[in-house]
Specification:
Elements lengths: L1 E8 L9 E10 L6 E6 L2 E5 L6 E6 L2 E3 L8 E6 L2 E3 L10 E9 L9 E6 L3 E5 L3 E6 L2 E5 L8 E4 L4 E2 L1
Parallel strand pairs: 1-2, 2-3, 2-4, 3-5, 4-6, 5-7, 6-8, 7-9, 8-9, 9-10, 10-12, 11-13, 12-14
Antiparallel strand pairs: 14-15
């Protein structure tokens, strides 16, 4: 899909090899169980998007909605703006490259993540493994034994 708008629930569920460019989408439960797909220069206003997604790249997009990409595997967000509560939980092989997370709290719970964020985040909760580089975190929650992901604040403070 290129240069269009759509409104849908369960948009493209269980699809593979999708290619979206310059698409504006509004709906719920978008792109669940998809694989091997690429999204570029899109704007998504959706809830529960990218659940159980595998091998997906999201580049230069705005994604607004709660519970983004739970249980996903090998999903990469590049230069994206992510807005909403509890994003990116229970993920494996998650990568964020130069992304901005606005009004996001309780992010990365039980996820294996490599992230480089360009703006402060409200809170990070129990990342299992990996590294999260962020200018500032309002709260870093550590209440799960074995959650060893590192949060590295660009101001020099390192929270293990």
């Amino acid at each position: 899909m290129t240069d269009c708008e759509l409104e849908s629930e369960y948009c493209m569920m269980r699809s593979d090899h999708l290619r979206f460019q310059n698409v504006r989408m509004k709906g719920k439960y978008s792109f669940q169980y998809i694989s091997d797909s690429v999204f570029e220069h899109c704007t998504f206003d959706t809830k529960d998007a990218f659940w159980h997604a595998k091998n997906v790249t999201v580049r230069d997009c705005v994604i607004k909605g709660e519970y983004l990409a739970w249980y996903s595997e090998n999903v990469t967000f590049e230069r994206c703006r992510i807005i909403g509560t509890q994003p990116l939980c229970y993920c494996k092989g998650l990568r964020l490259i130069d992304c901005e997370m606005l009004d996001t709290d309780l992010a990365f719970e039980r996820s294996e993540v490599e992230a480089r964020l360009t703006a402060p985040i409200l809170s990070i909760k129990n990342p299992l493994a990996g590294h999260i580089h962020v200018p500032e975190a309002g709260e870093i929650i550590r209440d799960l034994e074995g959650a060893a992901g590192e949060v590295i604040l660009t101001g020099g403070c390192q929270c293990a």
